[in-house]
Amino acid sequence: MNFDEALAAFDPAMGLEVHVELNTATKMFCGCPTEFGAEPNTQTCPTCLGLPGSLPVVNGKGVESAIRIGLALNCSIAEWCRFARKNYFYPDMPKNFQTSQYDEPIAFDGFLDVELADGEVVRVEIERAHMEEDTGKSTHVGGSTGRIHGADYSLVDYNRAGIPLIEIVTRPILGTRERAPEVAKAYVAQLREILLGLGVSDVRMEQGSMRCDVNLSLAPKDSGLLGTRTETKNVNSLRSVERAVRFEISRHAEILSGGGSILQETRHFHEDTGITTSGREKSDAEDYRYFPEPDLVPIAPSREWVEQLRSELPEPPRVRRARLQEAWGFSDLEMRDTVGAGALGLVEETIAAGAAPQAARKWWLGELARRANEDGVEVSALPITPADVAGVQALVDAKTINDKLAREVFEGVLAGEGTPADVVAKRGLAMVSDDGALAEAVATAIAANPDVADKIREGKVAAAGALIGEVMKLMRGKADAARVRELILESLT
Amino acid sequence: MITRSAAQLAAALESGETTSAQVTEAFLNRIGAVDGDVHAFLQVDSDGAMAAAAASDARRAAGAPASALDGVPIAVKDVLATQGIATTCGSKILQGWVPPYDATVVARLKAAGLPILGKTNMDEFAMGSSTEHSAYGPTRNPWDLDRIPGGSGGGSAAAIAAFEAPLAIGSDTGGSIRQPGAVTGTVGVKPTYGGVSRYGLIAMANSLDQAGPVTGSVLDAALLHEVIGGHDPLDSTSINAPATGFVEAAKQGANGDLSGVKIGVITELGGEGYQAGVLARFNESLEVMVAAGAQIVEVSCPSFVHALAAYYLIMPSEASSNLARFDAMRYGLRVTPDGDPSAEDVMRATRDAGFGDEVKRRIILGTYALSSGYYDAYYGSAQKVRTLISRDFEAAFAQADVLVSPTAPTTAFKLGEKLDDPLSMYLNDIATIPANLAGVPGMSLPCGLADEDNLPAGFQILAPAMQDARLYRVGAALESLLTKQWGGRLLDRVPELGGAR
Fold it and tell me: Does B94 touch chain A (CB under 8 A)?
């Protein structure tokens, strides 16, 4: 059933669970490093391996990050809370329980106002944000699915075990109707933006440092009921969040309108095909036998500390965007494009380094976005700094180079040839400012194109363009076109 | 040599009368001679102990002993992780596991220069009161080899009573240091919860477990307590206070003067269910203390009658979760069923083969108690009882400096006698469990032999949290008064073993 038909008959309800790996230097309950990409099982100790007798000790920085995230999401911060054990067996869980939080999360009852592309704002209520540890990472070798069933054997890397995680859980998001997929994507995108601003996580979905589980259910239209939900995992990009919601809405609707019922289960999203497939069945009867972690003492963040952290929070992204748009005089479209390209901070820093707002926007969203796209990386990952971009613009403003030469300068900077000034010097890109040399070129051009020159003499000033092109060719592009035009007109009128 | 107290051995080392190598060798020889009968040890590390002894002698020769007990050997319950020495917790499931790290207690023993003789036997994962639940066979009581040495730390207590070690470490979750102390005529101390690091102590019930000294005298326990106690940043529940003043308190108590000390006798821990001979020795001890100037008050702790029930919900709940990690995936036993087994199949087969019946019983109990729908009724209620017990202690300590009771209701029973009757086995800990639930410190010391069987009876002293020094003050006083009355230590009356005494 297609998406529109589905919505004609049903109301979707969503719940989003986002796991964020904190970027603390050490793990949540031991001193092991958290660096991504190390040799498997080299960043482990008795505690994160769950060896008999080992004990956890809470990472204070992790608690601080959790509180800051809670505050940024407008949550209340618990005056007293505990960790709890979530008991279940799985080979990548060293203790066969996960140290998490249960009915006493560190942050609760918050919200995030999510702005959609057309400027509409949807408030997403946050039920809780709690601290927990990550599990090890299983790799299932052999078999066709990469999943545990059918695998020849499995490998487990415990480097990830014990990495601090914050799980952020929304309340059911209702009434978003056909915008549900868009709301889900925008929520995750803006959550990501907030977390980036807080500097608490790398929030790289492709590396798994931010993971989203999508809970979705349908109920008959206008019934006000909640249907049976599925939980879709493995949703590893913003685009996938949107696709997964869209797919599940259609799939649920298909089953429900055929008289079937939804199986409460975990589903896996497939990036390549955009569909979800059944994972393990997950009934409400699954019993994690939570109880307070007896190896850890309760966490009671003082109100003074919480208020201090609140006072040090960065400006919320929406507020910041509005302030910057006003200051830069960008249109809504220009602003949206800038944010969408992930270039807001880059543009801001470029302006701070002296460039005019429109110039900063032009380079980051034009030439540099094109390069990033070619290289398949985020624009922020290009090897060029906002100071470099401002430097290029300064050279343009000083008429040392023109826009065309600027592109060559960018090429040089990206190739590691040094600062914009270095590149101009090394490649000899500075424009010729000597009127004598220019006048000579102008005379040559006029002599070679007498018919064009006649037109200009007759008052057809627009024809100057052809002569300017000729002069620029003679100067190998290293001339200020405006000055060339002046010289042409001077000599012909 | 081997019958000397640790304090005497330390003095002999200090004076140069003997060396750590000689002392350590003497105990290793004793182990060789009698442990075939007693089976106090699961592992004997002769090479490691002799190397540590040599290092100790070198330090002393250089005039730089590491501590008061430098060179005095010790036995360690197999519940503590020892780097390079197999650690099994008395279980098949950990057979062959050699820890890559030392428990903090073990690290402190090593830093203080005590050669580690080996690892002592215990009920599997410290679950039991007789050491019969060890997967490696029972330990026998040196007073009567047909009887149990208590448990779970029967190995450590028997090692002291059999003069196989002058000092030992035990762990006490519901009485596993004190009850073996009582039935073997030795001294056992469960420190204040958080007073001794639990890092490397393989957990049965994290909120109750505490490692502590097992020795032949109160002073020896105080000396050892100061070595192993004190704050450990690796244990979040560790109290940030130094472990000092215990030796001083024991020395003060040894003068036998109890003037002005108020001793509270707990009404609920005595009377029905307690062996007549045990009660007789307990009451005589009270009289001795009164004669030494103590004032006796009777205190009631009405919630204590629920302590055993609460304990048998909290302990198995925590244990069921703690023991989940033994799944054959990373270390220890692995049993692979025939066919094409999944990871879950391997876990199931390994846990079935690797855990004994008592462990399985408690895992099932705990899993049930934590289950959704039962949690409030079981685990939740038990935690409330725990709060009530703490309040009873507070009220009682408002009336008395220390509280006292018999340590265990009976003397050592015969091997096999209670093996098929878990409830009767659990009752052995009825007087020791309240201290664990409230986190207060407790000591058991011998108070004589029961008339009906000529076997040791234990006297339990309890103090408020962080007031462990009171145990040493009062315990040392009672010990010195009784020793005077008996004309020597009770331990000197242990029957000869295997010829070599």
Answer: yes
Catalytic residue among B77, B92, B110, B119: B77
Q: Count of H helices and E strands in chain A?
A: 17, 14
Class of domain A435-492: mainly alpha
The domains of chain A are located at 3-308, 315-427, 435-492
Beta strands B402-406 and B262-266 are: parallel
- Dist. CA A112–CA A135, nearest whole Å: 28
Question: Which token pair is A323?
Answer: 């302030």
User: Which member of A52, A56, A95 has the closest CB to residue B81?
Assistant: A52
Q: Which domain holds residue B26?
A: 6-304+386-493
* A169: its two tokens: 């859980």
* B322 lies in some domain: no
Backbone φ and ψ for A15, nearest 5 degrees, come out as -135, 135
In A, minimum Cα distance to B366 occurs at: A289
Give the C-alpha separation, A350 to A356, whole Å. Answer: 8
Contact indicator for B351, B326 with CB cutoff of 8 Å:
yes
Ranges of residues in chain B whose predicted pLDDT is under 50: 499-501
Whether residue B92 is contained in a domain is answered as yes
Residue A409 has pLDDT above 70, yes or no: yes
CATH number of the domain that residue B399 is part of: 3.90.1300.10
Better-scored residue on pLDDT, A104 or B270: A104
What ipTM did this prediction achieve? 0.95
Residue type, B149: P
pLDDT of the residue at A482: 85
Number of domains in chain B: 1
The pLDDT of residue B501: 36
In chain A, residues with a C-beta closer than 8 Å to the C-beta of B207 are 294
Return d(Cα A192, Cα A205) in angstroms, integer: 9
**B24 in a domain, yes or no?**
yes
* Contact check, Cβ <8 Å, B81/A148: no
Tokens, residue A432: 């010729």
Q: Which of B241, B264, B253, B242 is nearest to B217 (CA)?
A: B253
Q: Is the peptide bond before B480 cis (omega within 30 degrees of 0)?
A: no
- Smallest Cα distance from B167 to chain A, Å: 22
SS3 A478: coil
Contact criterion met (CB below 8 Å) for B190 and B210? yes
pLDDT value at position A464? 86
Find, in chain B, the residue whose alpha carbon is nearest to that of A55: B199
Residues in chain B: 501
Q: How far apart, in Å, do the first and last CA atoms of chain A sit?
A: 72
- Beta strand ranges found along A117-194 (DSSP E): 121-133, 137-141, 153-157, 164-170
pTM of the predicted protein model: 0.88
A49 contact residues in B (CB cutoff 8 A) = 330
Q: For A239-271, write each residue's pLDDT tens digit.
A: 999 999 999 999 999 999 999 999 999 999 998
Task: Say if A295 is an interface residue toward chain B (CB within 8 Å).
Answer: yes
Residues A403-426 have a mean pLDDT of: 92
> Nearest 5 degrees, angle CA B233-CA A25-CA A88?
75
Query: Does the residue B34 lie in any domain?
Result: yes
